[in-house]
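Support reply, case 0932

Customer input (verbatim):
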Amino acid sequence: MVRRSPQVTIADLAKELGLGKATVSLALRDDARIRHETRLRVKKLAELRGYQTNPMVAHVMSQLRSARISNYRATLGLVNLAPRQEDLLSNTTFHAIEEGFRARAIELGYSVDDFWLGDPIYRDPEKLKSVLRARRIEGVALLAMNEKDHLPKEILTILSDCVVVGLGVRLVQPLIHCCCNNQYGTCLNAVRQVLESGKRRLGLVLHRQNDRLLNGKFSMGFRYALEESGDRPEVAASRVWSFQADDIEGFFRWHESFRPEWILTNRTEIADWLRKGPAVTRKTALAHLDWDGSMAGWAGMNQHNDLVGAYGVDLLTAHLARRDIGLPLSAKTMLVESEWVDGVSMRPEEFLG
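Our regenerated output:
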């Protein structure tokens, strides 16, 4: 086994030269406060001994010196890609991720600057890049992505200068680090939870665009769980209905085709549809695949979206600390598992009336 020589430190150089560590440190940075002759002597010995600056320590010290001068506080950028700025508040998933991100960032000593790409100021694709550079922001999280294989030009311009992490959705092209819920496991485990109760006829209702954005993880988890329990693939596929807000008649035709005992969905309006339908529909239990505490009476899967945001900060700051700036050679995806929550919707006679 090859033994590596111990790394030469500033303390080693200072001891050999008979100088203070602060003097050596300043001399290596060519500080004018140190005599020219001393600077040359320090640099000559440093080169002779193979001294190398630790880039991580140098970066941290640079920030600390800047903080003493200008009250600078390390800042992360949170970029909202939603078409409407208010979507970050009205969409409970986005809002929970944002709150978790902000809370963890503050806990770690960072401030958070918010950016909405729909702001007219960012019509110039280079504007975001210049703003981030001016504010010395090198860590950026993307929220409310509505395309899995496309990034706006404004984001493409910053990829070489920042650590970029996607929140909630795994971006396929370009591949960047990501933190999201394990949506495949969410639906798979929801089906298993229902099957354990003895029910066999399950249906899945979700918008096709939602499933496409997630690379089919919900529908594939659902279908695999049914096939695992003994259903034929074609039967499992027929149990999925693509939600369309203006096609309630189509929904009832699908419901009548096999009369599901349970429906898994990410659309709360399905409960109202069942209430409006014939008596048989009001015997259908419901579970929401993205449950949150505001959904009165619903059972479902708590995706822990706040943790998606919090762990996104952990992923972002870990790469910042290592100075892994730019597109990664091998992107990481961090998955957060869901948890089943009981609710009145498990008892349709009580929930649907």
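We compared this against your earlier run and they match. Two observations from our side: The two ends are 74 Å apart (CA to CA). The first strand starts at residue 75 and ends at 80. Please reopen the case if you see a mismatch on your end.
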